[in-house]
Batch of 4 targets.
Target 1
Amino acid sequence: MTDYAVELRNVTKVFASGRGAKTDEVYAVKEMNLGIPTGQFFTLLGPSGCGKTTTLRLIAGFETPSSGEIYIQGKPVSRIPPNERPVNTVFQNYALFPHMNVARNVAFGLAIKRVPRDEQEHLVKEALELVQLADMGRRMPSQLSGGQQQRVALARALVNQPAVLLLDEPLGALDLKLRKAMQIELKHIQEQVGITFVYVTHDQEEALTMSDYIAVMNFGLVLQLGDPATLYKKPANKFVADFIGESNFIQGKVESITKGGIRLRVLDEVITAPVADSNMTMGQNAIFTIRPEKMMLKTRQPASTEALSGSVQDVVYIGTDTRYVVSLLSGESVVVRVQNGCSPDIEQFSRGDQVKVIWLPEDARILAG
Amino acid sequence: MSNHRFASPGSIYLLLVYLLLYTPIVLLFIFSFNNSTSLVFPLKGFTLQWYVMIFKNPELLKAVGNSLMIGFGSSLVATILGTMGAIAIVRFKLAGRSIFLAVSVLPLVIPYVIFGVSLLILFNEIGIKLSAFAAGLAHVIISIPYALLIISSRLVGFPDNLEEAAMDLGASYWGALLRVTIPICSPALLAAFLLCFTISFDEYAIASFLVGTDATLPVYLFSQLRFPTRLPMVVALAAILMSVTMTVMLFTEWLRRTGQSPARKG
C-alpha cells in the first residue's frame, strides 16, 4: 500500500448558487478519490472553475466536504478546524500581515505554538535563508517586491514544518521570467525539505516543469492522474490530450479491434493505433489523437508507418521548426511540426502540395469519441 | 486640464461659506477675552477672568465630569458593538444582512428630540432612573451607526484571507481577530471611538430629557443662558469646547486617512 500524505475518499463539495426559489446546486468537487503520495510534488491542474482550488481549501480546512472524508497522514480531518491541521498554505495573493515585519510574519505560527523565543529566532533565520531573504527580516511586506513577498509567504508556511504544504497558484502574479526562475527554485526547495507539496495551477507548462505527479481536473472530477511524461504521451481522454500540450484530433469509426490495437476508418482510409480505452466497441465513433511533433510529411508513405493523405494548407517557419497545417481528405486539418534539423530525409513542402502525413503507430492514441 | 475658468465663481462661493461658518466662531473667541458682560462692539479690554470663573465653578466642573464620563463610556461600548456588527456584516454572508445594516444605521435619521422623548417614556416604563447612565445608554444607540460605518469601511478594504492565513498558521478564530484583524483596524477603531466621543460630548437634545440631575456640559450651558451676567463665562467655555472638539476631529480625520493604508507605514 502506498503511503499517502493526503487522501480524499468519495469527497463531494456542493455549493448553493443563486437565491431563494432559484437556488441551484453546483458541484465544485464530485465524488473525488485521490491519494497524494508522501514527499512528492503533487499538482492539481485544470482550467478555472474546475474545482482545484476548492480541493485545496478542503484539504486546508477552509471548506467542509458535503460528503466523503479527507485523511491527512491517515487521520480523518473533516471535523478538525484549519488551525489544528498539520498543513500550511501559501496563498495566491501572499496574504502577508501588513502590520508585521518579515521576521514577525514568518514567526507567526511559531509564536502561536509558544515556541521559545530564541528557538523562534533561529528557525525564522533558517527559513529566511532557505528562501534567500536572510537580511530582509526587518523590512515591512510593503517594502518588498512581488517575488520577495512570495518567498516570505513560503518561509512563513515552511517554518512550521507542516506535513503538507498547500500552494494556491502562488506564482500567478509574477512576471514570466521571475515565474520561470521561481518554478525551478520551488522544486529545489521541495526536494531539499522533503515536505509533500500540493500545488494548484492552471498553467500546464508550469505543472509539467515542477511536478512529480499531476492530477488533471475538470468539472470537479480528476480526469487523469499520472507523472508528467505519462500525461503527455498517453493522455487518457480528449480533455487531457487537449489541455496538456498541443494535439491533433481526427474523427473516425472503429472498424476492428485486435490485441495490438484498433483499426479506425477515416473516410476511405484506415489507420491503426494502440488502445487507450478498453471499452471500445465495433462501429463506434472514436477520436484519433497525436502530437504535432510526432508526425512527418512525405511524398510517399514509407513502410511500417501509418499515413493519411492531404494537401498543405499553410506553412509557418518558426526557427527551430516548421509548422505545416495540412487539410486531410476528410476535411479536418492537422498541425505537423517538422524540426529544421540536418536529417537528410526531411522534405520541404509548400502550400498546395499533395502529401502523406505519416507517423509511427505507437505514437498515436485512439480515444472514445 | 485647466480649472482656471471655474476658479473665480468657485472661490467667491467658498469665501461666503467660510465667512458664514467661521465669523461666529471667531467672534466667540474674541468676546471670550473681552472685559464686559455685554457681547457688543467696541471691545472694552482684554481679560482672562471668564476663563478663571469656569474653574471656580464646581457645578460646571461637575457637568464637565459627567460629559467626559458619558462620552468615554458610551463611545467605548459603541465602538465594541460597532466592531462586532461590522465584522458580522462584512465577513459573514448573513441572511438579511441588508436589513440588519438598515436597522443599525436608522438612528442616523431619527430626529434626536423625538428619540429623546421616546426614550424618556421607555425608561420610565422599564424603570431606568433618569441619570448619566440613562443618557449614556442613549448615546450608545446614536453612536453605533458611526462606529459601524467607519469600521466596516476599513474591513471591506483588506483581504479576508489574512484571517484565513492566520488560522492556517495555527490561530483560532478569536486569535486571528486579536492578532490580525483588530491590529490592522486599530486606526479605524480609534477614529470611531473619537467620533462617537465628540457626538456624545456635543449632544444636547437627548441628554436634556434623560440626564435627570446629572447635567452634562451642553445641558448645563443651556441652563446658564438665563443669567445675563454669566453669559461671557458661557462664551469662554464654548471657546474651550470648540478648540477641543476641532482638535479631536482633525486628529480623527488624520487617523482615518493613515488607517486606510497601514501597509504604507513603516
Note: Confidence is low (pLDDT under 50) at residues 261-266 of chain B.
Target 2
Amino acid sequence: MAKNFFDKIRPTFSKGGKLAWLHSSFDAFETFFFVPNRVTRKGCTHVKDCIDLKRLLIIVVIALVPSLLFGIWNLGYQHSRVFGLDWGFWQMVWYGFVKIIPLYLVSYIVGLGIEFASAQMKGHEVSEGYLVSGFIIPLIVPVDVPWWMLALAVAFAVIIGKEVFGGTGMNIWNPALLARAFLFFSYPSKMSGDAIWVGGLSKALAGGTPWKGGEVVDAISGATPLSHASLDGLSAAGTSAWNLFLGNVPGAVGETSVIAILIGALLLMSTGVASWKIMCSSVLGALFVGWLGNIGGVTDIPCWEMLLMGGFAFGTVFMATDPVTSAQTETGKWIYGFLIGALCITVRLFNPGYPEGMMLAILLMNTFAPLIDHYVVNANIQRRLKRAKTV
Amino acid sequence: MSNPIRLKKGLNLPIAGAALCEVTARVAPDLVAVKPTDFRGLVPRLLVKEGDSVKAGTPLFADKKYTTMVFCSPVSGTVDAVIRGEKRKLLEVRIKSDGKNESVKVDIPKVSTLDKKGMTELLLQCGLWPCIKQRPFGTIADPEAEPKAIFISGMNTAPLGADYEFTLKNDVEAIQAGIDALNRLTSGGVHLSMNAQSFAGSEFHKLTNVTFHEFAGPHPAGNVGVQINHISPINKGEVVWTVSLPLVAVIGRFIREGVYDTRRIIAVAGPAAVNPSYVEVMAGVGMKQLAPYFSDGDIRVISGNVLTGETVGREGFLGFYDDLVSVLKEGDYYEMFGWIKPLRSKKFSVSFAYPAFLRRKKYNMDTNENGGERPFLMNDVYGKMLPMDIYPLYLFKACLAGDLDKMEQLGIYEVIEEDVALCEYVCPSKIEIQNIIRQGIDLMMKEM
C-alpha cells in the first residue's frame, strides 16, 4: 500500500515534476520506508553488503534508549524527591515524559529542518547523521533549558558545526556536544549551578515557590554530586558509588545511569558500530589520571569512582566514539581515547569551578584528532620511504 | 620453503552458485571478440578491416605507442565487425570462426638461448605480451622496463573464482614452459604464490625455476598485489610484472607448440547461473554460446568476478584476462523497511549490526546497492578489508583530492582497483571506491 502511494507521487517529485525541487525530501521519506531499487553501477562491485548508514545509526539510537528510559524515570524521581512529593512509579515516568518530549520536538524539528533544507539546496540526499545527534542532544542538556535556547543551540550546532563544513561526515566537532557547549558558554547562568539538573527546581527557586520538606539544602547539594564530590568524596556529597552506578542522582537526562549506558555500550561494541578501542582507552586514561590524583593527594576519591560520576560514561560511550570526529586510524584511536579520559579527569581535579570536564575533553580531542592521525599516517609514509631507501 | 604468510584481513564472500568441479561443455568458437578496452590505457591502431580472413594468431590491432605490440585473433575465420564507440573509440573486433581452427605457426627458438630482448620480441610478435601486466597501475608491461621480479598468483580467492588446481591440472607442463620463458625476462626471478592449505598436495608442487610463497587467509589473499606487498613491496621507481596463472599456461603452450592457443577452462557461476560448472572455451568467447548456463529473467552477466568484473550482458564477450563468468540477478526492487528489520535472512552483511549467529552459509546475492550514497562516515571498515600496510581511507581521500604527492606517499603504486574492491563491498556509505582509485591511477599515469 505504501509502495503504491510512493509510486503514485514519485513523478511529482522527479525531474520535470511540479515539486521536483523537493526531491531530496521525497527521497528521504521514501528511503525511510523502502530500501531503494538502485543497482550497482559500472566500474563498481556488482554486489554490495546490505549494511547502510541508516542501519548503523539506528543501532546507536537503540543503544541510547536504555539511557533515555532511565532518564525519564529519574526526572520524575528527582523532582519528587526535591519537592517532597509522594509519587508512584508511573507518576514519575509521566512527569519525565512530559518534560522530555518538547526537548525532542525542538531538537528534531530544528535540526532535521535545517538538514532537509540544506540537502535540498545542494540537491543531495538527506544524510541520516542528525538522527543520532538529535537523539543525544536532549539527553545532555539541562531539562529545564528554555526551548528557544535549545533551538538556537541546535541551529548553531547543525549550521556552524556541520553544514558549513559540508554536512554529515565532514564536521570537526561532535554536533551534539557543540550544542551543549553553545548553551554552556552563551547562557552560563542557565547552564551551571546546582539547581538546573532537577526538573522544575530552577523555576521554583526563581519564583520563590515554597516546597515541602526541610531537606532543601540537602536536596540542592545533592543536585550535582560531582561538584561537591570532586574534592571531598562521595559521602560528603550525600551519595554513594552504588547510586551513581544505578543513576538515581540528579544530572542531565541521559548521563546519570552508568548501568543503562553500559547496556548501550555492550550493544555498540558487540555490533562493532562504535570503536571499543576508544571506549577502553578512555577508561584507561581516566583511571590513570584518577589514580595519580589520588596518590598525589589532590583528591580522596578512588580513581574508579571517577568513572561513575558526571558525564564521563555517557561521553565515552556515545560521543567520544563518533566515527566522524574521532581519530580515524586504529593506533590513533588508542591515543585519542586515552587523552579524552585523562583530560576529563584532569579538568575535574584541578578546576573545581567547572567540575564536568567531559564535554571540553571531547571537543578538544575532536580538534586534535586530525593531528593524531597525521602523525600515525606519517609514520606509515616514513616506513614506505625507509623501505625505498634500504632497497 | 618459507613459512606461510597468514593474512587475517579480508573476506570470503559467501555468495551462492559456486561452480561444481566438472567440465560440462567444450564450446567450439563461433563469434569471438577481442576488446581493446580490456587493456588499461591502450590506444589501439586497427590492422584489419571487416571481411578480412584471419587465422588464430593473426594481429588484429597494435599499440599505437609501441607498434610492435600486437593483439591477435584467438580463432581462424573472418573479421565480422569492428565496433566503435563515442569518438570512434575502438571497442571490439569481432571474428566469425570458420571452424577450421587454423593457426599462424611460429618457429620457436630454444628458450635457453634467448636473452631478454629475444624473448620480449617473441612474445610481442605472437600477441602474448599483453598477458604480462605491470605494477604500478596494472597496465600492460612496458617491454623496455626492467622488472624487479615477476609474480604469479597460484591461488584464486576471488568470489566464485575458478579453482586453478582444477582448471589447470593438465597444464602443469605448459605452465613450466611458461615459467621458463618468463625467467628470461627478469633477473629477479619468477615468484609463485600458493595456497598454504592445499600446497602440499598440489600438482604445481613439481614446478621448478620458481620461488614458491605460501599464503593463507581470506580474499584478497589471492590477489597478486597483496602478495607482492608481503613478499617484496613496490617502492617508488620500481616495476614488477604480474601474469595470471592461466595465461602462464597460454604462454607455455605457445613456447612448446608455436601456436597462439588461448583455450581455457572457465567457470560459469553465480546465484543466477543454471548448473554452475566449468566450460572449456576460447578467449573472447561470446556469451550467447554460454546461454544455457544463464537463468531467464533480468540478470547481469559479468566477465570476471562479482567484485571487479565487467558487465557484458547476454550478448557480450569474455574479457582477455578473465576465466570466470558470474551471473547475478538484477536487484532493482524496493525492500520495505529493509534497513530496520531486526533480521534480514536473505541478505548478507559482514557487519554485526545484523545478528551474526543467524548467518547462513551462502547467499543469493543480487546487484541491489542496499542503500543510498553518503559521505565517508565509518572509517574503520576499510582497513579490515585490505591486508596491506596502507591506510586505505587516506589513500582514497588523496585520490579524491587529486593530490599526487600524497597518493604516492600513501602507496598508490602498490594497489590497483581489485585490491580495494572489498573495501567498496563493505562500505556502508556505498562509495564507489574502485572508481576513486581508478581515477587516481589515471591521474598518476597522465602526470608521469
Note: Strands of chain A lie at 34-35.
Target 3
Amino acid sequence: MSNPLADSWRRLRAATWARSLEFIRDKSAVGWNVIFPVLLVLGLAYVFSGPGQPMFKVGVLAPAGVALDAKLHPFLATPQVQFYREEPGDAALHKVQLQRIDMLADFTVVPGRYWVNEQSPKGKLLEQLLRGAGGDALQRQATSGAEARYVDWVTPGVLGMNMMFGCLFGIGYVIVRYRKNGYLKRLNATPLRAFEFLLAQLLSRLLLIVVVNCAVFMACRLLLHLRMEGSYWNLLLLTTLAVFSMIAMGLVVSARISSEELAGGILNVIATPMMVVCGVFFSIDGAPRILQMVAQLLPLTHLINGARAIMLDGAGLREIAPNLLALAAMSAVYLVLGAALFKWRQN
Amino acid sequence: MPAVLEVRDLVKHYPRVRAVDGVSFEVQEGTCFGLLGPNGAGKSTTIEMLEGLLKPTSGQVLFRGAALGGHYRERVGIQFQNTALQEHLTTRENLRFFSALYPKRRPLDELIALCRLEEFLDRDTSKLSGGQRQRLLLAIALVNEPEVLFLDEPTTGLDPQARRNFWDLVQGVKAQGKTIVLTTHYMEEAYLLCDEIAIVDHGKIIARGSPAALLAEHFDDSVLELPVAEASRLNDGVTYKQKGDVVEIHTPDINGTIGRLLAVGASLAHLRIRSRTLEDLFLELTGRELRT
C-alpha cells in the first residue's frame, strides 16, 4: 500500500530535480542570469560615480490638508528644489542622515524647524536658500551621517529588478513553452498533480535565483564596497520570500497561455510598471499617493524597501516584518490562484 | 472473460465539430485493439477519452467494469503522437524522472533492454533520431508496468526502417501479455499488430472485427496489378481499376485471369499479385483513400 504523502514528495522531488538539471545545463541561460546583473551594477556604479544631480530634494512635515506652497512658507516656492510631503517619524530624519534627501523641514510645530546633514554640502547650500527666501525663521536642527552612495542605494533595486525578470520570465516562458510543445500534456498523463508540478517549478527556480543572486550580491559587495549594516540572514530570508512570491506571480500569468508572444506581452506589461513604481532606480518618496499605494501591492517594492532598510539602515526582523508579512500573503494568494487557474493543455 | 475497457456510446462534440459520434466497443485482456482511420476521423479524440485525459460529452468508459477513478493514471501507460521532453536531459534521466512519478515501477534495466535503449542511454534527448525517440517514449509509457498501453499514432513520421523496428518492439510488449490500444492510419501497422480493429470515419465506427475476418467478410478476390498497356488487352469479364500508370484487376480466380492474360499475349514482366488489404476495405466502405 503506497503512502500518498510519500508518493507526493517523491514526485515533487523528481520534478524539481529534472527542471533544475534542465536549467543548469542551459549554459547560455545560466551565463546570462549571472553576467547581466553584474554588468548592470558595474555600469550604474560607473555612471553615478560622477557629479551628483543638480536637483535638491526636501522632505516637508506639514499639517494635513495644508498645501506645500509659498503660503505655508516662501521657501517652498524656491525653484530647482523638489519639495514633497514626508511622514513624521525617525524614517524621515534617517533620510537626511543618509543624504538621500538634502533637508527635512517641519512646519507642524511653531516655530518651524529644519534638519540638515552637517556632512552634506548640498544641505548647507539649501540653508542659504532658506535664509534668502524670507518668511518666518526656522530653527536649525543639525544631524550627521555618512552619505549613502547612489550605488549603495540602487544596487538592491537593480538586483531586485533582475530577480523579478528572472522570476516572471524564467517561469512564465518555460511553462508556456511546455504547454505549447505538449510536454505538459504528457505530464498530465502521469500521476503528477498540478500543485506538485507548479511547486517543483517554483522551488527549482527559487533555489537557482537565490543562489545566483547571492553570488552576484557578494561580487558586488566586494567590487563596489557596498554598505551592509544589517544581517545577511535577514536579507536572505527577505529575498527568498520575495523571489517565492514573484515566481508565484509568474505562475498566475502562465497558468493558461499557450503563446510565448502573448506571455511576453503580459509579462512586460507587469514588469515594466513594477520597475518604475517599485523604486528601482529612483525613490518614489515624492510620488503621488495612489502610486505609492499601488507599489505596496507589488512584491518588488517590499523586496527593495526591505533590502535597503537592512543594508543601509541596519534594520532587523522587527523593522522589516511588514515587508515579510506582505510577501508571505502575496505568495499564498498567487500560488493558490496559479494552481486554481492552471491548465495542462492548450484549448 | 470481462473486458479490460468497455466503451459505451461515447460522444465528444466541440462547438462546430462532432469529433466522436457514438462509439462503442470493448478491449479484451492481453489483446491489441486498433482504431484505424484517416487523419481527422476522431481516433485521437477517442483514445484521449479512453486515457481519461478528455471528458466525453456523453457516454462512458469503464475500466475493469468501473468508471475511471483517481488512480487510473497509475495503471495505464500512454504514448502520444507528438511529445516534447524536458530539454538537456539524457535518455536515462528522462526514464528515471518519469519512473519516479509512479508508485509501481518496472526495473529500468528491463525497460532499457525491452526497448533497446542501450546505445543512446546517455545522449541528450534532443539529439535522438525519430526512431530512437519513439523507443524512449514507449519505454516511458511502460515505466509503471501498465495494465493497458495506449499508443496514439506511434509511428507517424518515422522512416520505414524505424517503423518496422518499432513494430518489433510493440510485438515484444504484446508477447508479454499487455493489453494495447493503438490508433493508426497505417493499414499495415493495424494488420500486423492488432487482434481486433475498429475502422473509424467521421467519428463513427464503420467496421469492427479482426483484420483477417473483416477482409474475409468484405472480399473474396485478390488484386493483380499490371501496366495499363498490358491490362487493356483483357477487356471483359474482370473488374478494373486504373491507378496512374497501373491497372488493378480484381479477381477471385487468379490462375484463370493469368491464363487469359497470357492467351491475349500480355507481358507479365511487371505483374504484381497481392491480397486485399485494410486500405482496400476502407476504400470499399467510404469511397475514399485511407491516407487522404
Note: The longest strand of chain B covers residues 17-27.
Target 4
Amino acid sequence: MSDNVKRVTLWFAILIVLPVGTMSQESDTLYTLTVFVGGGYTRNVSKFPDQLQGLQRGGTSGTVRVMWKPEHLLKVGFETGITQVYYVEQRNVVSPFGPTNFTARLYTVPIMLTFSMPFSGGFEGYLGSTSYILISQTESFGNSVTGVVLSIGFSAAFSYMKPIGNDWAIGGELKWFRIEKSGDDNVMLHLVLSYRFLEW
Amino acid sequence: MASCMFVEPVSVPLPVASGFLLGTYPLDSTQKQLLEGIYLVDAGAGVFGPTVVLKWTSKTHLTVLTGEKVTYLVLGAGRLDSVFFFEGYWRSQNSRRTGSARFEIRKDRGGRRLMGDSLASPSLLVEGTIGDEGSSIPVVFRYQWGIRPEVQDQRFWIIAHRGGGSMADLHPHSENTVEIIRIAERYGANGIEIDVRLTKDDMPILYHDNTINSRLVQKTPMIGPVEDYTFPQLRTFVRLLHGERIPTLEEALTTIVYETNLKLVWLDSKTEGRDLVKRMVPLIQQYTAEAAALAVQGLRDSLEILIGVPTDAVYEELLRYPTFALIPSIAEKSLDKARALHSAVWAPLWSGGVNVGENAIAHSEGRRVFVWTLDEPPFVREFVNSAQYDGILSDYPMIVAYYHYVR
C-alpha cells in the first residue's frame, strides 16, 4: 500500500469514526447550501533538489467552497480557488549562454469534490479528491513560457467555525494539497467566512 | 503517481576500486578470446542461473551475461604469471541487489591453458565471491564451450533503448544522457537508440517525452511541452533525474564516436513538423565521416547512424528531403514505407510476432530487419532463436546478448 493510500485511508477513518462518538444523528431534514470563502498563507513543504536556489516556499492562497448539507452527517461540496505552489527567483545567473535572471511561479487551480464530517464544538474535517490545473510562468534568457498541465491529487482540511449570526460564521482552516504530477505538498492556514445562502 | 516513484539509485560499487588488480598485467587478445564462451554455473546459480556467457564488451571490461535472472557482472581483468584476476561489480536488475565481485583463475584451473600451455588441463574455472549486503556468495563458472564462430562473426545488433534502456532505472545515470551512453557497451549492447527532439530555438537535444515531467527530470517549476523552451533555458535550469544536464545530439554523437566503440545509432525522431530531419542530417554525415576516419586508423569500428521514422509525419518530412534516398533510415512503419524511403532497416513492432514472410521479403530486398522493443526473456529467446532478425532493440541488452551468444 502506498503512503498516499495509507494517508487517505487514515483520513477517511478519522472522518467517519470520530463523529460517531461525538455527535448523534440530527433528527430534522433540513437541507442547506453554504458558501465558504477563505484566504491566507500557503507553504510548500515538499522536498526540492539542493541546487535549486532562490526558492520561496511561502505565498498566498484563496479558496471558494460550496457545501451541501443533507439530512445525514456527511456533507458534499465543490471547491476551487487559486494557490501559489512556490516561487523561484534567481538574479544574475551565470551560464555558458551569458547571464540571465530566472523567475518561475508555479500555481494551481484546484477543481475539487470534497466531503466533510462535523466534529463537536464547531470543528469539521474535509477530504477531497482533486484535479489540479498546474500553471507555471517562467522567464529567463528573454523567453517567457506559460506551461499548463493537469494533475490528479488529494486534499484534506480541518476547520473551526464560530457562528456570528443565523447564517454567518467565521473561523480558521488548516489545509493540505497534494499535487501528484509535480510532487508538491502545500499546507495552508486560512481565515474563512461562511454564509448559509439557501435552505429548504 | 509518477512523482513519488523516484527511487534513490542503486549505489553500484566502482569496478577495480580496491587495487586488487594493481600490479597485474593486461590480458592479450588470445587470452581474451580464450576466456569468452558459455560457462556452467557450479556455484552461484541462485544469482546467475544455470549458465552464463563471458564476453568482452570493451577492451577493458569483461561482462558476465545471464538470461532470465537479469543479472550481470562487469569485471576488469589482469594477470600475474599464470594466475588471472578479475574485479568489478554485479547487479540484479530485478531488485536492488548489487555488490562487489572478485574472481581468479588459478594456475592449475585454467591459468596455464590461457598462457598457451598445450599440456595444461583443458578445464577452465573462474572462481570467486560476490558481496551481497555484508555477506559473500561463492561463485564458480566452469567453461563449457566457446561462442560458435558463425554467431561470433554474425553482424547482429543488440541495441540499448534510450541510450541504455532500463539500465537507467535504479542506476546512477539517467536515460538519454552521455553518461549512460558511455557504459551501454558493458551490458552487451553494440548499438543504441536515442530520442531526439527540437527545442524552441531549433537545437536537437536528447529527451524522450513531449513534456518536462517528473519521470525524467528533477523537481522544476518549468512544466509543459519541451518545445516551448529554448536550449539555454533547458540546459541551465533543468536537471535530469540523476542530476545530469540535457545533452545535445551533437554531444551525444561526440561521446559515441570518441568514447565508445558502438557500431550503430538509431535516432528516434520525436519532433514533428519542424524540420528535425534537416537539423539531424548534417550531424549524421559529419559524425559518420569522423567515425570512418577513426576506423581507417584502427581506433574504432565503423559506425552507422540512422534516422528512425516512427510516424507518418516524420515519414513525410524525410520524403520531402531532397536526397532522402541517401539518408540512412530505419522505417518503423510498413515495409512499403521502408521501400519508399530506401531504408536500410525495416523495424516492425515485436507484438506483431515473428513475421517470417515479410522478413524474408525485406531481406531479399537487401534490408535488415530489427524488432522493437523486446524486454521479456522468453520473447527475446524466441525472436533471437528464430534467426529472422538482424537486431533487437531492448531495455535489457544483456538478455539479448546472452540469448544471441548461446545460440
Note: The longest strand of chain A covers residues 143-163.
